Write the structure tokens for this entry.
Amino acid sequence: MSIDRRFWKGTLTESYAPRWPCPSCTMGVLRLKRETLHYRETAESRRSHYDEHLDITDVAFAFSALLECNRCSGKISCCGVGGYELVDDINGEGKVHFDHQLYFVPKYFSTPMEIFRPSARCPNTVKEQLRNSFAVFFCDLGAAANHVRQCLEEILSDAGIQSRNSRGKFVSLKTRIKSFGDRDQENADRAHALRWIGNFGSHPQALTKDDLFDAYEILEVLLEDIYVGHQRSVQQMVEQINKTRGPRR
């Protein structure tokens, strides 16, 4: 299932938070507790007041707030940065009106958000690395990509692809994926794509959120195909029905 990228790029205002799913109960959505939102201008931003070319959109804040689940009433804290953005609106006379609105970008959640939910059949070692990736997604894209790479390592280990050779030396991820391809080339191709993104984790300045969203979407399909196999089983049914030109018997 495709990830709603704009949703996960959403920001908070003084009265609104995106309807992020509660990572604790997984059934409710999080709402901003307005009275807990606190923000202050950063020291670096205050120092810039001496710049005669300073614009209000150059002002930067640090913020913290609590989010509450509308179902389980669980509380999650978040913190990050903020500022002013220029917004436009149409007044009653049909004229465009410009104004500045505060916005806040979360960098850390006390409980990691689930950008997608892996199958219950997925090994705990893989889930742990995926959770670690989600935990740093909003603040450290390089680390998030590295944890995606670790997900791959755990998937291959679960598949029986050894991480060390007969002499006890580590086997490269590329070589392990190639061995996996001998039995499942389609998922090996997906794994190679994830490996490339994971490699860029060492060069975080080259990564964007969309790069990680690409990785998560590929990883979601990979996990679904390996541990659930719904897509593969449906394809087998399709091939059998088309071959017999009628219902399966």
